[in-house]
Amino acid sequence: MKNWSSQYEARRRTAAEALQAVHSGHRVYVHMGAAAPLPLLHALCGQASRLQNVEILHCITVGEAPYTDPAHCGIFRFNALFISGNTRCAVQQGRGDYIPVFLHEIEDLFTNGTLPIDVALIQCTPPDQFGYMSLGTDIDLSLTAARHARHLVVQVNPRLPRTCGDTMLHVTECHSIVEATHELPEFQQGEITPAHRAIAAHVSNLIPDGATIQIGVGGIPEAVLASLSNHKDLGVHTEMFSDGIIPLFESGVINNSRKSLHPHKAVTSFVLGTRAIYDYIDNNPVFEFLSNRYTNDPCVIAQNDRMVAVNAALEVDLSGQVCSDSIGSIPFSGVGGQVDFIRGAAHSKGGVPVIALPATAKNGALSRIVPRLKPGAGVVTSRADVHWVVTEFGAVNLHGRNLRQRAEALIGIADPKFQAELEREAAGLFQKS
Ligand code: COA
Predict the structure, then answer these.
(1) What is the pTM of this model?
(2) Which of 82, 147, 162, 235 is the most exposed place for a label (fewest CB within 10 A)?
(3) Strands 27-30 and 54-58, how do they pair?
(4) Residue 218 has what pLDDT?
(5) For the domain 194-429, what is the CATH code?
């Protein structure tokens, strides 16, 4: 379209004008990750006095979440598709809710009438010469949300990287456009501990040369990436990645050459990290950013031969049930893409599904390998889905093993100081009444 610039001008508004589209009772979708449009969110909170009962819906975001302020109770209520650090307190204090759902199924909720979106607040790059604007760091659920919202407000920010893949909206798809330049918030990585390094050493032994990897964010994934410098011809098919992937691209360890699906491309849907990764993905054609309904579809993941999926957990019981989204009944994070990738890797030719966790929590005071999950704990990966479980004390494969064998294997990778107690508990679990 040649005359897109006049269409752009016709849609330009101030944030306050654009947010008049939000009414009481609406469901408002907020762009994910570092692309959450903070100036629009602050402007929305500035209109709190005319609003009530507005649902704010999003998955993980980075940076401020002003609508979770206790002062906004009754005006905004947060509904989490994944709980991140900036919204955890609101959900745990009852000012928000949590929806357990597989990441690859969320977009269907927007399109099938379960969670219709009234207004989507999305951040984009400035338009290119054809009038297309990239959703930058986060395609995830957000491109689908933008296209299915009844009203689309786009904040244009030149600091957002322009990413390749299926990442673009056209100017004419927006109802209003707000120009606001600001630096993207950064995601602060947790510390990499000696336990993370020991876990990474076991995990890297499970990753063959030529593997395609899924890797998340946090101490374990960063330690795993750092342990792969002697691997060859790795590929990437993941829902997200962070800064730790850059050295592996630069050294040629990741070259995507042996991928059976999307060869020569690293498939992803979002990044979480610092300015370094935002700059690395900017206009970088090796990265194919696609929606989660595709990247996380287990049938798609399984088309990658030698798919290795590494996901973290909070607690694993002696039968292999994996809790990853709650501490007991207290919601902590989300289902995310864990099951999508565990199942996808399980069905890939030569695939390796891995759950990795430190053997203890709270400075060694608590075993994370437990006879029974805490009351109310959410099982994310079921004991029928689980394959490899890795701690700093070793790696065991539970697939095809009976309950007694699983307990024995898991006790073997628990912290030695908890092993005798776990053995006593296991004996009780398997006694006939
Ligand atoms: N009992 C009590 N507290 C526990 C615990 C347990 N069994 N296990 C962990 N904790 C505490 C830790 O002590 C820590 O508390 P602190 O922050 O006060 O130190 C906190 O819970 C987080 O534990 P940690 O192991 O540091 O978590 P993490 O940041 O490595 O994240 C998951 C681990 C499981 C929460 C995260 O990977 C997740 O949300 N996974 C589900 C989604 C997913 O796998 N998606 C696909 C990949 S992106």
Answers:
(1) 0.97
(2) 147
(3) parallel
(4) 85
(5) 3.40.1080.20
